[in-house]
Amino acid sequence: MKEKCLLITGGAGFIGSALIRHLIKNTQYSVINLDKLTYAGNLESLKEIDGSDRYTFIKGDIADKELVSQILSTHKPSGIVHLAAESHVDRSIDGPADFIQTNIVGTFNLLDCALAYWNQNNKNPHFRFQHISTDEVYGSLGGSGFFTEETKYDPSSPYSASKASSDHLVRAWNRTYGLPVLITNCSNNYGPYHFPEKLIPLIIHNALLGKSLPVYGDGQQIRDWLFVEDHARALFTVLEKGTVGETYNVGGDSERKNIDVVKVICAYLDEFVPHSQFKPHSQLITFVADRPGHDRRYAIDCTKLKQDLGWKQEENFETGIKKTVKWFLDNQDWVKQVLANKYAGERLGLQK
Questions:
Q1: Helix, coil or strand: residue 50
Q2: How far does Cα 33 stand from its chain's mean position?
Q3: Is 136 assigned a catalytic role?
Q4: Does 35 qualify as catalytic in the annotation?
Q5: What's the distance, CA 42 to chain centroid?
């Protein structure tokens, strides 16, 4: 195995690309990026490191056993960081089959290939299989309390159920076969290069065009917001310092109601685009039918990650959302390219 080489699955996605940028710019690791390039995968998110001799891109499916085995045999990574997933709740309501195939079958295939590879390399003690998951596997919180690593699973959507299934598979491969695994469950990410079907980039894009800003239900749903670059640093910290078999929750310590997030974005757009004919942008807010099975509140307790491994956030919500709005304003060509080719801004997930 090459000591400083990682196979990253889903590296052209939002979180995966942030992790790869961090690894190439701030560490000595080389990276093999395996990505199927579905609608949310975008190599433009990796343009700034694409010329590095420590970065290799391979287009392919994690469910392709022959391909994954070949990559492991050829590149000999010392770890796999598994981010490849279908991730949008609304899309899982409309079409759950893709979520079952990628998130469950794909994860099983990766585990199967990783175990064979690990065994072929005499169960190298330095090898790690790091699985990236979500706080949505825990279900919905009441008005108080936090998700911890001991919170029982109670998924509500086809997406969260598929991720819960993949988490259980990863733990089973550790307990049954001894595969050295690490699991992280994160809160809602936001930041540069976020695919515009998600709340924050969609609101920014619609507001700039004077389109309605759709807020589900009463807008009182609460999420804990995690800046994606803080998440990338957390994932690397867990990879380097985490204890095999353990789970680490990653949060932003930034609980906000959805309606308040939208209002903050509108206020920054009023400031940064002072001559907009749509100012004040908050006048564009429109309440729409809620998502079926919409969880009311998520909140992460990431004390374990902070105390045991020494990680902490570098951005709070106020600094992170300001950077995010500015980035989208400065990178409208990226947004237009994504929207022209992959997504037209339509509402998804209305099936009941």
A1: coil
A2: 15
A3: yes
A4: no
A5: 14
pLDDT of 52 above 90: yes
Sign of CA dihedral 349, 36, 111, 248: negative
Q: Is 98 an annotated catalytic residue?
A: no
Task: Exactly one of 35, 86, 136, 230 is catalytic; name it.
Answer: 136
For 328-347, b where at least 16 C-beta lie within 10 A, e where not — what string?
A: beeeeebbeebeeeeeeeee
pTM exceeding 0.90: yes
C-alpha to C-alpha distance for 286 and 214, rounded to whole angstroms: 5
**Which of 61, 86, 90, 135 is flagged as catalytic?**
135
Coil vs helix vs strand at 236: helix
Catalytic residue among 159, 190, 216, 248: 159
Q: How far apart are CA 195 and CA 190, in angstroms?
A: 10
Report percent pLDDT > 90 for the chain: 87
Q: Which two tokens stand for residue 202?
A: 């969609």
pLDDT band at 348 (very low <50, low <70, confident <90, very high): low
For tokens 């947004």, the residue is 335
H/E run at residue 225: strand 222-227
Looking at every residue in the chain, the average pLDDT score rounds to 94
